[in-house]
């Protein structure tokens, strides 16, 4: 006669070793063992996917500015610094801030980050998937003009020929906003020309236009210096600078001291008050956190020096205007780079260690308590199943001690057979085999007391 217990707990030959181990160790059925293996496999696959998916990309794309502009030069500086960390920065020239914002808004443009001046957004801009890594510089608006007498207010430019910057530039956006505030709108007597910086500067020097609006997002420093040194051209000073900054929160009042351009020739001849927004480094919300830290470290190296309009260490700064400062940038401004990126020289090694810890640590915190709890629950569950039939067997044995009539004896034998059959069907982990076989031995003992022969088992 085949041993029922042996037949009951033996797995099919096709069962995998892992399933066999789980079944024999924990006493699960084959179905539950397969479910456990499948679940564990899914967790491992998810961990591997997450580990690979969260790796920083080796190449990112920035939208800069026209050739020679401050935006383009900054992007080139970023590229050189990031290359030392093994990250390639692809630079896309642009017309300026507005085109940069449009590219960032377009999810299919392939652009990851870009320079955008404050104030270029409007209600139609969908900025929910864009965040700011902080402001990186002041961007003063410079208005050069030809006129016999100094011009004090922007309204005096009415009726003149004004170069307000090319379409797509932040210069044009700000210039039109300020002119409209002073009653000068498109379609009126004032000619608003879409000339680029070089063409506008040349036209102003030749006297074919009356004024040009320039900003660093679309004009080179060389172009601005050439106009600054021209005796026929004047630099507009904002007499109402405080009023403009109160009305437009993204604008800042800036001072260009006398002689700042040329001390020997005293250019400019007197202090000039300017206004301008800050330039923000804008990124998509899905920018890798490790790259966010790397970019902010790069921005600090590029923009953190003292210049004509800022002190050393003023930028980058978490100045929030049109875009929310990202959570990663906020953390960086509070505590700097994370410990791993400060301690490990290689960016990629630090990233690997960081992602490994992020995967292993949570799993450890979850699995260790579970691993400790499972044996206790298993022990409690298994013992309850064994003790259940021990209690039934004890009750039956007490009845054996009484007077046994043939009918009573047959009844007890039937109950004992039912107990034995139920015990044979139990799935017991291997570590509890001694208790299981002990229970079967006690069943045989009660059978002997009933006067029945003990079955021979192979």
Secondary structure elements and pairings:
Elements: H1 4-9, H2 17-26, H3 30-53, E1 59-63, H4 70-83, E2 88-92, H5 97-105, E3 113-117, E4 130-138, E5 142-145, E6 161-163, H6 170-181, E7 191-193, H7 197-206, E8 211-214, H8 221-228, E9 234-235, H9 241-247, E10 251-256, E11 272-284, H10 289-303, H11 327-335, H12 339-343, H13 347-400, H14 406-424, H15 433-449
Parallel strand pairs: 1-2, 1-3, 6-7, 6-8
Antiparallel strand pairs: 3-11, 4-11, 5-8, 5-9, 10-11
Helix pairs in contact: 2-3, 4-10, 7-8, 13-14, 13-15, 14-15
Question: Can you characterise this structure?
Answer:
It is a single chain. The protein has 458 residues and is an alpha/beta fold. It has a domain at 4-49 and 356-449. The protein has 15 helices and eleven strands. The protein has helices spanning 4-9, 17-26, 30-53, 70-83, 97-105, 170-181, 197-206, 221-228, 241-247, 289-303, 327-335, 339-343, 347-400, 406-424, 433-449, and strands at 59-63, 88-92, 113-117, 130-138, 142-145, 161-163, 191-193, 211-214, 234-235, 251-256, 272-284. Strands 1, 2, 3, 4, 10 and 11 form a six-stranded mixed β-sheet that branches. The longest helix has 54 residues, at 347-400. The radius of gyration is 40 Å and the shape is rod-shaped. Mean pLDDT is 84; it is low at 1-14.
């Amino acid at each position: 006669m085949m041993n029922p217990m042996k037949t009951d707990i033996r797995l099919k030959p096709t069962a995998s070793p892992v399933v066999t181990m789980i079944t024999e160790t924990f006493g699960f059925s084959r179905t539950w063992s397969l479910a456990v293996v499948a679940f564990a496999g899914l967790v491992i696959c998810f961990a591997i996917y997450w580990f690979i998916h969260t790796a920083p990309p080796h190449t990112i794309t920035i939208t800069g500015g026209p050739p020679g502009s401050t935006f383009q030069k900054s992007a080139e500086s970023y590229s050189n610094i990031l290359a030392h960390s093994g990250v390639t920065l692809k630079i896309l020239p642009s017309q300026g801030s507005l085109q940069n914002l449009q590219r960032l808004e377009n999810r299919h443009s392939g652009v990851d980050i870009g320079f955008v001046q404050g104030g270029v957004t409007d209600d139609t801009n969908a900025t929910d998937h864009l965040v700011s890594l902080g402001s990186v510089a002041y961007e003063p608006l410079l208005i050069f003009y030809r006129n016999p007498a100094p011009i004090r207010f922007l309204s005096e430019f009415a009726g003149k020929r004004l170069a307000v910057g090319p379409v797509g530039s932040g210069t044009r956006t700000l210039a039109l906003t300020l002119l409209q505030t002073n009653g000068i709108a498109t379609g009126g007597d004032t000619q608003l020309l879409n000339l680029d910086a070089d063409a506008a500067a040349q036209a102003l020097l030749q006297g074919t236009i009356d004024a040009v609006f320039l900003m660093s997002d679309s004009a080179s420093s060389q172009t601005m210096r050439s106009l600054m040194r021209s005796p026929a051209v004047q630099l507009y000073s904002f007499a109402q600078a405080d009023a403009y900054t109160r009305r437009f929160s993204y604008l800042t009042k800036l001072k260009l001291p006398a002689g700042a351009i040329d001390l020997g020739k005293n250019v400019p001849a007197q202090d000039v008050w300017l206004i301008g927004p800050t330039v923000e480094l804008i990124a998509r919300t899905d920018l890798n956190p490790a790259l966010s830290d790397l970019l902010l470290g790069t921005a600090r190296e590029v923009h953190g020096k003292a210049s004509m309009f800022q002190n050393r260490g003023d930028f980058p700064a978490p100045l929030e205007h049109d875009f929310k400062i990202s959570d990663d940038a906020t953390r960086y401004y509070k505590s700097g780079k994370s410990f791993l990126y400060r301690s490990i020289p290689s960016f990629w090694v630090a990233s690997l260690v960081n992602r490994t810890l992020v995967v292993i640590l949570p799993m450890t915190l979850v699995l260790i308590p579970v691993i400790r709890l499972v044996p206790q629950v298993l022990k409690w569950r298994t013992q309850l199943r064994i003790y259940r039939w021990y209690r039934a067997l004890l009750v039956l044995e007490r009845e054996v001690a009484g007077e046994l009539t043939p009918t009573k004896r047959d009844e007890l034998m039937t109950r004992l057979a039912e107990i034995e059959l139920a015990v044979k069907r139990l799935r017991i982990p291997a570590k509890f085999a001694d208790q299981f076989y002990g229970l079967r031995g006690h069943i045989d003992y009660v059978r002997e007391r009933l006067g029945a022969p003990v079955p021979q088992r192979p």
